[in-house]
Write a structure and sequence with these properties.
The protein has 117 residues and is mostly helical. 83% of the residues lie in helices and 0% in strands. It contains five helices and no strands. The longest helix is centred in the N-terminal third of the chain and has 33 residues. It is elongated.
Length: 117
């Protein structure tokens, strides 16, 4: 939600949004993505071989993580080119496009919380 607010602010000050989103990703999001990957791998190893529902959850989670990493890559590029208005707009479009991963993350969370708790 914080990133959504930052991107909304970016409509008025694209350089501010580039700086804020970069630091949020560097300090919070990248470590969380790494933690998700590590814990997901450990938990998957405990239930090997996975059931069909596990495979579905893993696929949904993998798509969400991939979209998140895609976003982070463009957040970094945007930060590096934050003084170029054309690149700021171009990279912002990629950052916003990464929201395609949200429903997949929500589906993975729903499956995990509903069936594996």
């Amino acid at each position: 939600m914080v990133e959504a607010v930052v991107e909304a602010l970016g409509l008025e000050d694209a350089q501010l949004a580039a700086r804020l989103h970069f630091w949020i990703d560097a300090v919070v999001e990248l470590p969380l993505v790494a933690l998700v990957l590590v814990t997901g791998t450990l938990l998957t190893a405990r239930v090997w071989p996975p059931t069909g529902l596990h495979v579905l959850k893993l696929a949904m989670g993998a798509i969400a993580v991939a979209a998140n990493l895609y976003c982070i890559a463009f957040v970094i590029l945007r930060y590096r080119h934050r003084h170029d208005p054309v690149k700021l707009r171009r990279y912002r479009a990629h950052v916003l496009a990464s929201t395609v991963g949200l429903p997949f993350g929500a589906a993975a969370a729903y499956i995990g919380l509903s069936y594996f708790t």
